[in-house]
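S.,

Sequence below, as promised.
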Amino acid sequence: MKQFLKLLQWTVNAVVFFTLFAFALNNQHEASVYFFFGTQWRAPMVLVVLMAFALGLIVGVLGMVPRWWRQRQAAKTAMTAAAPGVGAAEPSNGT
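The prediction came back faster than expected:
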């Protein structure tokens, strides 16, 4: 069963790779991206799409960083509040 799942994973990976490869081959014509003040960038369409995806990924991750920091801080304070005696020496009862 484990070998079947590994083979299935390789098959899915191959299908995704060849689909993206075919997309890249079919979109080699030049595209222009116009910026402000008349500047433009000319590149193959697949690079324009890849750059747009990467830029969106970066903006999304940077948008999530403050929430991650707040949740990490909340988890840290919850851990210290849940276990206040961790690391402290236990008092002896004198026996």
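The CA atoms of residues 31 and 48 lie 7 Å apart.

Coffee later?
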